[in-house]
Structures are given as C-alpha cells and as structure tokens.
C-alpha cells in the first residue's frame, strides 16, 4: 500500500488479513492512484473527502461510517480518516481494477452541477415569490375590509373630542 500516507508517529499499523488499525483520536490521509473502497470493520470513523463536484451523489464532504459501511474513493481524491470515539478502528482498503463510480467529466463538474444548482435556486425563488404574493394579497384584503367597514376612517375634529 505505497499510496497510503501514514503519520510519522505510527498511528496506522497493518494487522492480519490485510486490515489496518487506527488508534483512537488519530488520523490518516490517503490519496489513491486507483479507485478504492474504504470498508470499516469495527469502530466508527469520520471520513472527509474532496471528491469532484458531484453533490447529487452526496459524495462531497464529511461522512461518518460505522462497522460494515464503506465509502468509494476515486483516483486522485484526498481522503482523511479519523478514528471517532475512544476505541481503535479497524478498516480494510480495497483497490479496484476499474472505478466503481464514474468520475464526472469536466463539463459536468463545471457546468452541469452549477446549472442544476441554479435551476433549484430559481425554483426556490419562484416558491418564495408566490408565498410573498399571497401574503401581500391577504394583507390587502384585510386592509380593504378594515377601511370599507369604517373602522379605519379618519374622524373629524368634532368626532374625535367628545364634550
């Protein structure tokens, strides 16, 4: 596992059958050359990735993985894994011959995802403007009923100061 960068203080050590141990409170950074999968065998980890902009697949950012859960890592992605809790973590690092997840093209990352985000923002803006319009209409209806009923009319000086 030459592509694994281990801390100099020896927080990561290989165990039997290809498993790795990570001491409580320690971290390790990985940047694989091949598509790989991090599989947690026991314990919990906090994994942070700088995956390509593919937010629709929910790959960007932080992940908390427990025993039996896994996270696919694309070639060149930076992955930081931290043992979460007071117990050591054991995990397996599986290298794949082919990528389990297709990396988005440059056009998808730079145009497709921002385009989808813009469409979602416009949809949210339309909903907000619709709610604002209904609120303004409701207030106008209340105000007009208040004024028509005479409760909002301006009193003359004789009506306002009774003797």
UniProtKB/TrEMBL annotation:
Pfam families in UniProt: DUF2917
InterPro entries reported in the protein's UniProt record: DUF2917 (IPR021317)
Protein name according to UniProt: DUF2917 domain-containing protein
């Amino acid at each position: 596992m030459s592509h694994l960068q281990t801390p100099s203080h020896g927080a990561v050590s290989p165990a039997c059958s290809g498993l790795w141990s990570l001491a409580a409170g320690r971290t390790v950074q990985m940047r694989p050359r091949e598509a790989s999968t991090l599989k947690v065998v026991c314990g919990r980890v906090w994994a942070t990735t700088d995956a390509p902009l593919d937010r629709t697949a929910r790959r960007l950012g932080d992940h908390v993985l427990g025993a039996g859960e896994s996270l696919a890592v694309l070639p060149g992605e930076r992955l930081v894994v931290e043992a979460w809790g007071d117990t050591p973590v054991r995990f397996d690092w599986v290298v794949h011959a082919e990528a389990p997840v297709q990396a988005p093209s440059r056009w998808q990352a730079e145009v497709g995802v921002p385009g989808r985000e813009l469409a979602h923002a416009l949809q949210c803006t339309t909903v907000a403007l619709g709610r604002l319009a209904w609120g303004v209409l409701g207030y106008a209806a209340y105000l007009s009923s208040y004024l028509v009923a005479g409760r909002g009319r301006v009193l003359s000086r004789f009506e306002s100061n009774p003797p």
